[in-house]
Write a structure and sequence with these properties.
The complex is a heterodimer. Chain A is of the alpha+beta class. Chain A folds into two domains: 182 residues, no CATH class; 80 residues, no CATH class. Helices cover 65% and strands 8% of the residues of chain A. Chain A contains nine helices and four strands, in the order H-H-E-H-E-H-E-H-E-H-H-H-H. Chain A has a four-stranded antiparallel β-sheet with strand order 2-3-1-4. In chain A, helix 1 packs across helix 8 and helix 2 crosses helix 9. The two termini of chain A are 35 Å apart. By secondary structure, chain B is an alpha/beta fold. In chain B, helix 7 crosses helix 8. Chain B has a domain of 154 residues: P-loop containing nucleotide triphosphate hydrolases (Rossmann fold), CATH 3.40.50. In chain B, a hairpin with a 2-residue loop joins strand 9 and strand 10. Helix content of chain B is 33%, strand content 25%. Chain B has eight helices and ten strands. The chains are: A alpha+beta, B alpha/beta. At the A-B interface, helix 1, helix 7 and helix 8 of A face helix 2, helix 4 and helix 5 of B.
Chain lengths: 298, 223
């Protein structure tokens, strides 16, 4: 003869047993949690990658400028000296340097191939300017350069980098919004599933109330069940998402544009935070649904 | 134990019970009788806080029912054993597990010896592992009674406990109730079976409450 006391079950496990097994619809919660977490991993990757991109561009945008000097061969050195003299007396400049021929060749190599006879080409001389804090007045510098070295042109990169940086931070915002929406949708679906489960088991709940079960006891059974299911589903979803992101082509030095989608360094830990987060969402949603539903019964 | 003071209860339409005042003293045995729909079940539900009176006062163990929180109701029910005509069980759990349920839900352990004694007392030892849907009507009633008394409640409320069983089984259930009363439990049985009441009166001092014209009155000594 078997008595309940013969089983070494903890009170929490027994609280799970008082609710009948939920049958074939149980996996729907697991599936939903898995799918949502999978999507969440990609939203996370997207917003982290665009965050990095935005940061990189904003930084570059804020810090550096280039002066391009195109002048007849005999004028180049004279005008270069004039530019350097001007920069030396301009407030708001942290440093500047002339980019030498070797570096220029390297910069051009991807476009023209190796072995380019730089000397033979009218390649403009480049001077890199790093701004200080507070920065220089770019309009003032531009006018002084025109006066001192007519062949010099100041390019502070603003025009083409700013819209890109803006787009990147907009994408990041969308990513964060997607993550929030995914979380809310998961909470809504788990609430619906929990309410359905509570309605299906109304008879059992009545029996439990009759023999003196508190609401918290009955809720515990449902909350544990849905939290564990969500945790399991989210773990599978996060693992699948991580594999998917890991399988993306790696960002190479030249690109970092589309191929930069993914995680770097500690950011790889973010997806691992998703299953516990999903479980917390499930816990709160089920608990709220359970107490709400239980109040309808005596 | 359970006190009604000028209690009235009305469902949407008219009043079902009105001006009910009575006291169930510790150790007493009461029958509650009256035609179907007269409000026997309602009276019992008021007595275990399933329903709250629309006016008047119901006191359970010196606590006003209207002031009980949901958790207080749960705690109060651990002192009241309830048996219904169509008693409900958790169909996925064994009979023994169902009987231990009042212990389980209050995170307490039932002693295997008590459980075995109780199963023997209601004659269901051989069915400890059976699932509730496999039990007959009489077996279900006895199981419900066993579940109701396992936590050693002060009061036992039974709503037509013999409604679904034959006469022989009715007598058996009555005997169990009489034994519980002799152990000092307060018993209230709602029934329309007058034979059962006569049978009980031969064994113990039972009082009969009759619901008529929305009121609960003490019936005369003769039936």
């Amino acid at each position: 003869m078997r008595f309940p006391t013969a089983k070494p079950a903890s009170p929490a496990t027994r609280a799970l047993e008082v609710v009948p097994p939920s049958g074939p619809t149980a996996w729907l919660t697991t599936f939903t949690a898995g799918a949502m977490t999978f999507l969440c991993v990609f939203a996370l990757a997207l917003s982290l990658a665009s965050g990095r991109l935005a940061d990189r561009w904003s930084e570059a945008l804020a810090k550096t400028a280039t002066i391009r000097l195109s002048a007849p061969a005999e004028q180049v050195q004279i005008q270069t000296d004039a530019i350097l003299a001007t920069l030396a007396t301009t407030p708001g400049i942290a440093s500047y340097r002339v980019i030498d021929d070797a570096e220029t060749t390297k910069l051009l190599e991807p476009w023209f191939g190796p072995g380019l006879p730089v000397e033979a080409l009218p390649i403009p001389r480049l001077i890199e300017v790093v701004e200080a804090d507070p920065p220089y007045d770019s309009e003032g510098l531009r006018q002084r350069l025109t006066a001192e070295a007519p062949g010099a042109l100041l390019d502070d990169h603003t025009r083409w980098r700013r819209p890109l940086a803006e787009a990147a931070s907009r994408i990041r915002l969308l990513g964060v919004l997607s993550i929030a929406l995914i979380g809310a949708a998961m909470a809504a679906m788990i609430t619906l599933a929990a309410r359905a489960a509570l309605a299906t088991n109304a008879e059992e709940i009545r029996v439990l109330r009759l023999v003196g079960a508190k609401d918290s006891y009955i809720a515990r059974a449902f909350v544990r069940r849905f939290t564990l299911r969500t945790l399991g589903g989210a773990a599978i979803g996060a693992a699948a998402g991580l594999l998917g992101v890991a399988a993306l082509p790696a960002a190479d030095a030249a690109g970092g544009f589309l191929t930069g989608l993914g995680f770097t360094g500690f950011a790889w830990l973010w997806p691992f935070a998703l299953p516990p987060l999903a479980a917390i969402v499930a816990f709160l949603a089920t608990r709220r649904a359970a107490f709400q539903k239980l109040r309808e019964l005596t | 134990m359970i006190t009604f003071e000028n209690v009235a209860y009305s469902y949407g339409g008219g009043e079902l019970l009105s001006d009910v005042s009575l006291k169930l003293a510790p150790g007493s045995f009461h029958f509650l009788t009256g035609p179907s729909g007269a409000g026997k079940s309602t009276f019992l539900k008021l007595a275990y806080a399933e329903l709250r009176p629309t006016s008047g006062r119901v006191t359970l163990f010196d606590n006003d029912v209207t002031k009980l929180s949901r958790d207080d109701v749960a705690r109060t029910r651990r002192r009241i054993g309830i048996v219904h005509q169509d008693c409900k069980f958790l169909d996925h759990m064994s009979l023994a597990a169902n009987m231990a349920l009042p212990f389980t839900v209050s995170d307490r352990e039932s002693s295997p010896q008590d459980m075995e004694d109780l199963l023997g007392w209601v004659g269901l030892k051989h069915l400890a592992d059976a699932l509730p849907p496999q039990l007959s009507g009489g077996e279900r009633q006895r199981a419900a009674l066993a579940r109701a008394v396992i936590v050693d409640p002060d009061v036992i409320l039974a709503d037509e406990p013999t409604g679904n069983v034959d006469w022989e089984m009715s007598l058996r259930i009555l005997t169990l109730l009489v034994e519980l009363n002799k152990m000092g439990k307060t018993i209230l049985v709602a029934t329309h079976d007058l034979n059962l009441i006569r049978q009980a009166k031969a064994q113990i001092q039972a009082r009969v409450l009759r619901i008529a014209k929305h009121r609960v009155q003490l019936a005369g000594a003769d039936l």
